[in-house]
Amino acid sequence: MSGSRRLVLFLGVPILALGVLAVVIMNQDGTTPGPGNGGGTATTRLDPSRLEAISALADLENSLALTPIRIEVSESSFSLLPAAIGFDLDENATLDTALADRSLDAILEDLQRRGDDSGAGLPWAISGTIDETALDGLLDLYESALVAPDEGGIDIRGSTPVARYPRAGFVIDRGVARNRIVEALLGQPRADAVRLPTVEVQPVLPRAAVDAALEEATVLLAGPVTLTRTDPAATLHLDVGQLGRALTTEVVTDPSPGLQVAFDRDVINGYLNPLRSGFEAPPRNAYILIDDQETITYVPGFPGALLDVDLVIRAINQATRRESRQSTLPLQTGVEPEITAEELAAMGPLSLISEFTTKHNCCQPRVQNIHLFADVMDNVNVLPGETLSLNEAVGERTLERGFLPAPTIIRGEIEDQVGGGVSQFASTFYNAVFWAGLEVIDHKPHSYYFSRYPMGIEATVSWPVPDLVFRNDTDTPLVIKTAYTRTSITVRFYGNNSDREVTASVSEPYEPVPYPTEYVPNPEVMPWDPPMEVQQGADGWSVDVTRSIAFTDGTTSFEEWKVRYRPWAHRFEVHPCQLPEDAEDYTGDPCPPSPDFPDGYPVTLPPDPDAEELVEEGETGEGETTESETGE
């Protein structure tokens, strides 16, 4: 059992040993492996009776694992299902033990009697394992029925602190309890119930320690506390109830046993959150800016001002010692940024390491979405070792942010969706990552082929998935630079990839999938008209993509993956009465009569379309893959 301790069970052994049971490996023909085939002993053919006994022991294991035993703790009773603690009978070890003084035939007879009468038990010992971690979890549950020992503390009743003095309590004697449960699991016959022993535990703290803590809590909660400042102006007022909810006690032993009274950082931090936006200014890291003339500027960061929760707690404690119960709200100023312009510049010179451009038609709604993506990503810095998610960096596409509805593929159908078309940016961005030789963590190609993207080396995104994620696995910062025209989008990466050499290949298309023909009912198409083509068909296929990166230290990396493109259905709209019988919406309704077609209206399909026409610019709009399609 991965991640858990296994407890080896041997009936009659007083000490429980942790470990992993040995496994007897057998060949399919019932022999044990010999030298040269995984074993260290000569091959020995097993008696069929042994295999029969092993099978019977497996049945016994199932019966034992699903037969609960009663656990009694003090005045409470629980039902323990052995399977819940991973009970596993070791069939081979058990059989070897039984064979010490019995024949296989006798053992089979014993197992037969045990199967007929579970109360009969067995005349020999069984062995197995349980999950010790799972057993400890159940012992924790059983222990909840006892009066637990309490080291004492301070309770708040209304707004008044009240002492809770230490008291003795009881816990389960874990070592003895485990042994008794083991004996019950392996006993033949099993006992009806197992009583677990308990031991009394005395508290460590004396009553005087709680008295001292009560005195301190009384001072802290003697009245409200107010912290103020004038530059900038802000006030934090905490009433007694708020102070009481933040009060905590903790048992300490150094230098002597005692009860430490304090205010909880998380609770006080929650009280500060409404104030933060008013005057808190987080420090800003330095960053690299590249303009359209490729001029590189290291923009300095600036220090910030923060509300430090530890300083605020210190000020609250100071106020509780004053008659006015007032103090200054501390603002930690001069908080330095994590990285400076000097540190960025010291990481080395930057240059263009990759660039990629794709084309699109002008003036469509999808173009505005692409441009919004580009604006957000322009001059984004990715520090060495950092990971960038395109979805996280841009965020959700909404009308409020200026994104427009545009064609998107949803479960194979082209529909308008807010933010549609941005996979044009994703494919351009992915190629810049790809040819820079950077580590790709997550990406998904389109499900359908679009000729404006390199076959196989492209990507789609939608909100919230699929996503495009990469890591800057170089030693220098990476700066993303975007540019666009009315008919193109360009992504450039500036950094230092130590002149990595990237080579890639895309196989010839294979595994062709012929496109289907689909008919869609449209009452506005007259029965005597030919079917109206609304989407041309195109076959699907697969390609294999490889990328090899040669590093300057002489090492290389190699990646290979398969990209499958689905076929586009050749789709026609027809009058409902003209639907073929295998169509999804077929009803069998007759067509209205006509003297020109007394025997019905013929369905005449146009010639098969050229699949290349489907993927010409502007024919179908962008192909987006939404979450509903990612599992296909």
Descriptive account of the structure:
24% of the residues lie in helices and 28% in strands. With 632 residues, it is of the alpha+beta class. Among the domains are: 6-151 and 159-199, no CATH class; 208-343, Ubiquitin-like (UB roll), CATH 3.10.20. The relative contact order is 0.07.
Strand order of the largest sheet: 20-28-27-21
Whole-Å distance between the termini?
A: 32 Å
What kind of sheet is the major sheet? 4 strands, antiparallel
Number of helices: 14
Question: Proportion of β residues?
Answer: 25-35%
Proportion of helical residues:
10-25%
Q: Return residue spans where pLDDT drops below 50 for at least 5 consecutive residues.
A: 12-45, 605-632
The average pLDDT is: 84
What is the compact description of this entry?
This protein has 632 residues and is an alpha+beta fold. The protein is 24% helix and 28% strand.
Defining traits:
single chain, 632 residues, alpha+beta, Ubiquitin-like (UB roll), 4-stranded antiparallel sheet, 28% strand, extended, disordered C terminus
